[in-house]
Design a protein that fits this description.
heterodimer; A: alpha+beta; two-stranded antiparallel ribbon; 2 helices; 4 strands; 45% helix; 18% strand; elongated; B: mainly alpha
Chain lengths: 138, 126
């Protein structure tokens, strides 16, 4: 496999990894208010995603893949909502451990990385078309 | 016509540039991978120095007639140190700068080959 095709393949692996990261972030944001429905029940637990470099055996390029989607083990913040159906005996409800600010920062970072990968794809495509242009009738 | 070395040289450089582009693609794809170390390809001057002049062979059995397979060593880029707690040494900005550098060199390369090709064609076309 030639190097430019490898570059395209590696960059597309980056695109898919970053889009899966966006998926996890959107799951977290969508469930930022998902509490339990029985007294004292656990609410939605924040998901985290980790990447790992992987050697693509066919092309020799180091692609990226999602290593694991984990759960954030931090404590749930308590909110005093006595009328809520998930409130415990003291009237406290466990809220999901999702911090929208952290999630938005994660979105921005994923966005930047996605753009960088797209740039690589554009660049590699340009290089390929420059090579093909060599054969064009002048 | 004198055997001209330019096409071989140009294709060697184009190949080197593609390998470098692939290395940079790997770096950018792994920009958020914990513990990943950025890599780069050895400079083209080194590749040129390694590529020795081989004898022209007119027969398969001739000594040294085996086509030289160009190989480019990629190594860890030790000029940058990890600045992130995740121990990742990729700096997106410098990778994109390198990528732009590659695009310009490649453009120059193909332009030269094109010009040379036109010159070669002049002697063929009536």
């Amino acid at each position: 496999m030639d190097a430019l095709t490898t570059a395209l393949k590696v960059a597309s692996s980056g695109l898919s990894a970053q889009s899966q990261r966006l998926r996890v972030v959107s799951e977290n944001l969508a469930n930022a208010q998902s509490t339990g429905d029985t007294p004292g029940a656990d609410p939605y637990r924040r998901k985290t995603i980790t990447f790992a470099a992987e050697l693509d055996k066919v092309s020799g390029g180091s692609t990226v893949s999602v290593l694991k989607v984990n759960r954030d083990p931090t404590d749930f913040p308590l909110e005093y909502l006595p009328g809520h159906e998930a409130a415990d005996a003291n009237g406290y409800v466990k809220m999901p451990n999702v911090n929208p600010l952290i999630e938005m920062a994660d979105v921005s970072e994923a966005n930047r990385s996605y753009q960088a990968n797209l740039q690589v794809i554009k660049q590699a495509r340009n290089l390929i078309s420059m090579t093909i242009d060599l054969m064009r009738n002048q | 016509m004198q055997p001209v070395n330019l096409f071989k040289l140009a294709s060697l450089q184009a190949e080197w540039l593609s390998v470098r582009q692939a290395a940079i693609a790997g770096n950018i794809a792994n920009a958020n991978t914990p513990g990943y170390r950025a890599v780069d390809v050895e400079p083209f001057e080194k590749v040129l120095a390694r590529t020795s002049v081989s004898l022209t062979a007119t027969n398969e059995g001739h000594f040294g007639s085996r086509a030289q397979e160009a190989s480019f060593k990629t190594k860890e880029d030790d000029r940058t140190t990890a600045i992130l707690p995740s121990d990742n040494t990729v700096v997106l900005e410098s990778e994109l700068m390198k990528s732009g550098e590659i695009a310009r060199s490649f453009e120059l390369n193909t332009a030269i080959v094109k010009a040379f090709h036109r010159m070669a064609l002049m002697s063929v076309k009536v």
